[in-house]
TrEMBL record:
GO cellular component: extracellular region
The keyword Secreted appears for this protein: yes
Protein name: L-ascorbate oxidase
Keyword Metal-binding found: yes
Organism name: Eucalyptus grandis (Flooded gum)
Subcellular location: Secreted
Protein family according to the UniProt entry: Belongs to the multicopper oxidase family.
Complex and partners: Dimer.
PANTHER family, alphabetized: L-ASCORBATE OXIDASE, MULTI-COPPER OXIDASE
Gene3D superfamilies given in the database record: Cupredoxins - blue copper proteins (2.60.40.420)
Enzyme Commission code: 1.10.3.3
């Protein structure tokens, strides 16, 4: 698409706290122009998106990440506080400007502290240029964001994670579908002083209704913005065909339910071909964690027109998958391949292999998550500015390890003998244009017989998913099983309990890019790394991203 045709899509956002009751329980929620989820960004491939963000949070900094947008030529607009920019101060206005260079389904969300959990998130839908067609047909296009929801504020959650004794965030109070859920008000732990704190009849927590016309085909863009939970999504009585993942076309897969991890997006097609005189349940369930006693399923209504949208389906919601059955989740991961005719084959071999062992550790008695026993901390001066301005003293210059020194003998099925870790703000320097393999290796946590699911998200890139496996990665034999023929490209991928996942990407996007677990509490506890590549090729940095750490004098009016 010629640049001359590129349109500019302008958005003006006012971010502030408001009282909302998305699951009937009233709490402070971060809103954009009064809404949570925020407004959808709708654009066409090649458009320039300009978002002018005013931070009205009064006592909090802010940064917004455009999840799945690669920021080619605009690494300072990635919206990652501490990595690509100083945060937006209360009262300040910051303008994000970037090109949406690929069609597909993407997200945006807060990337400062644990703010995302407070409700700052939304969807980005990029359509094909005029005259170009998708490789599948549908009549209507709808976006649905799935989320989990906590009643405790992000401050209470973060304070618990940083305390001795450790205060875990626990399972969410409810699951939201397109920003709406249902908390059972009679379950409030103690009678609250505010009688209006939970109102089961509030219009804000009426279930989300998707009204559909019999005989038509719908494209549903399903994305997950959960703080913690892995989810299963299903529609009663309807199969769905998976056709897109993270902006890439999938060889179609028919499924009864979709497993989706935080930070992932999928498009599914559904045919409205069931008994038309009734409505059907849309449902989400937590998988991979035992939340059966704590978190009820998320429920919405598939409303067959002309039935009344509030008409309750005559059957009970279907049973969700068994929470600890890993096999079907691994099977779905393995089944997702690039669509014929849309395959980008990966480079046949890599220049560098980095093994990231995912571990849970302690540092000075505090709980942390780590990679190769190193827990990540952000410096006060963002890496992008530090590297461009040659401020070498603001973060640790020694390279972090490409693998645990004793990985060969590490037993992933037991609690480690020594669970102590170190914390560091050192980063991985990648040679520009080289091919990098990342092997994510899961292991036991500090609890016996426990290994968690971690969705890993890479900023600034899509990667090829070359393979998944169970148990410990075997460097001699497992690479022989890699799919180099039609691997899917993604920006977020899960590593399953006691398993491994391999991804490959080309370090061809000048900038500094975060790679981290998309579970908000795990990232807060240090589960991430930063990659630098070709930073000398980055253009002149805008002064708006400066003003913190050692860049205090850099922000000129």
């Amino acid at each position: 698409m010629a640049l001359a045709e590129a349109r500019i899509r302008r958005y003006k956002w006012d971010v502030k706290y408001e009282f909302k009751s998305p699951d009937c329980y009233k709490k402070l929620v971060i809103t954009i122009n009064g809404r949570s989820p925020g407004p959808s960004i709708l654009a066409q491939q090649g458009d320039v998106v300009v978002v002018e963000v005013t931070n009205g949070l009064v006592t909090e900094n802010l940064a917004i990440h455009w999840h799945g947008i690669r920021q080619i030529g605009s690494p300072w607009s990635d919206g990652t506080e501490g990595v690509t920019q100083c945060p937006i101060l209360p009262g300040d206005t910051f303008t994000y400007r970037f090109v949406v260079d690929r069609p597909g389904t993407y997200l945006y969300h807060a990337h400062y502290g644990m703010q995302r959990v407070a409700g700052l998130y939304g969807s980005i839908r990029v359509s094909l240029p005029d005259g170009m067609a998708e490789p599948f047909a549908y009549d209507y296009d709808k976006s649905i964001i799935l989320n989990d929801w906590y009643h405790k504020s992000t401050y209470e959650q973060a304070a618990g994670l940083s305390s001795i004794p450790f205060g875990w965030v626990g399972e969410p109070q409810s699951l939201l579908i397109q920003g709406r859920g249902k908390f059972n008000c009679s379950k409030l732990a103690s009678p609250t002083l505010d009688p209006t704190a939970c109102n089961a009849t509030s219009s804000e927590c009426l279930p989300y209704v998707l009204t559909v016309i019999p005989g038509k085909t719908y494209r549903l863009r399903i994305s997950s913005m959960t703080a913690l939970s892995a989810l299963s999504f299903q529609i009663e009585g309807h199969n769905m065909t998976i056709v897109e993942a993270d902006g890439h076309y999938v060889e179609p897969i028919v499924a009864q339910n979709l497993f989706i991890y935080s930070g992932e997006t999928y498009s599914v097609l559904i045919k409205i071909d069931q008994e038309p005189s009734r409505n059907y349940w849309i449902m989400t369930n937590i998988v991979s964690r035992n939340a059966t006693a704590t978190t009820p399923p998320g429920l919405a209504t598939l409303n067959y027109y002309p039935n009344h949208p509030k008409r309750v389906p005559p059957t009970g919601p279907p049973a969700g998958p068994i929470w600890n059955d890993v096999a079907p989740r691994l099977a779905q991961s393995l089944a997702i391949k690039a669509r014929q005719g849309y395959i980008h084959t990966p480079p046949p071999k890599s220049d560098r292999v980095i093994v990231f062992l995912n571990t849970q550790n302690k540092i000075d008695g505090y709980f942390h998550w780590s990679v190769n026993n190193v827990s990540f901390t952000l410096p006060h001066t963002p890496y992008l500015i530090a590297l461009k301005e040659n401020l070498h003293h603001v973060f640790d210059q020694s390279p972090p390890p490409d693998r645990l020194h004793d990985f060969t003998n590490y037993d992933i099925h037991r609690v480690a003998n020594n669970t102590n870790a170190t914390s560091s703000n050192a980063i991985y320097r990648l040679k520009f244009n080289t091919t990098v393999d990342i092997i994510l290796q899961n292991a036991n946590t500090m609890t016996a017989n426990n290994s968690e699911t971690h969705p890993w998200h890479l900023h600034g890139h899509d990667f090829w998913v070359l393979g998944y496996g169970t148990g410990k990665f075997d460097a001699d034999n497992d690479p022989k099983k890699y799919n180099l023929v039609n691997p899917i490209k993604k920006n977020t991928v899960a590593v399953h309990p006691y398993g491994w996942t391999t991804l490959r990407f080309v370090a061809d996007n000048p900038g500094v890019w975060f790679f981290h677990c998309h579970i908000e509490s795990h990232l807060y506890m240090g589960m991430g790394v930063v990659f630098e590549e070709g930073v000398e090729r980055v253009g002149k940095l805008p002064s708006e991203i400066m003003g913190c750490g050692k860049t205090k004098g850099f922000k000129r009016p």
